[in-house]
Description:
The protein has helices at residues 16-26, 40-48, 50-57, 67-75, 86-96, 113-124, 143-153, 166-174, 189-194, 202-206, 210-217, 222-225, 227-240, and strands spanning 3-6, 9-12, 33-36, 61-62, 102-108, 128-134, 157-161, 182-185. It is α/β, with parallel strands linked by helices. The protein has one domain. It has a 6-stranded parallel β-sheet, with helices on both faces. A two-stranded antiparallel ribbon has the order 1-2. Strand 1 (3-6) and strand 2 form a beta hairpin.
Amino acid sequence: MEKIKIHGVMMDNVTMDEALEYVIGRLDRTGTAKLYTPNSEIMMQAQRDPELKDILNQADLLIADGAGVVLASRILERPLKEKVSGVDLVERILEYTNNRPASFFIFGARPGVAEKAAENIMTQYPKAQIRGWRHGYFNSDEEDTIIDSINESGADILLVGLGAPKQEKWIHKNAHRLNCKVAMGIGGSIDVLAGTATLAPEFMRRAGLEWLFRLVKEPRRLPRMMDLPRFILLSVKRRFRPKKDS
């Protein structure tokens, strides 16, 4: 797959269909593929956190979850094909279970949310096998037990919603201990699947205005969301004053 460098982070230049094809293909291979879905906020975190940047660059599939990342690629004249949002990719994978069986373990969100997401998935996608779930609140002493539960479930795909950068660092640290075929960081998608959070209307998503919808719903996110204009400004600056790792 073609790689596009955006501020030192090597993004995979794929469409939604190509990302889905990659995930399905991994189900017949050995090892655990690490899949992350950075948006503009995570990309800016990676500028401040060299460990996170290194982890993103060691992903097996790194897709642009956000119009801001795609816009940055165009500003830098290295255009990504399209936005591939994590929640949309998860739904495409679930839909694909009508053609090819796959099993899942849901790990993350608040107590009760992963269970509700599992119930909704089993109702909407009856051929998707949910092998287990676990909320995302734990301490280091519980980590071995969590990994044992995931492995004993026999799930093909692990959906991890611990928030960034915790989920990326957890997957990177533990991938060698996991038996699943794909470990995917999906942020708040578990809440969407559970119905405890809503996506922006389709017209806002197409227009790249998801950030505005989230800001109206959760004004407390404003300090974090300032990373979006910072990311675009950084891209403009590096377009005209490029650095080696840009």
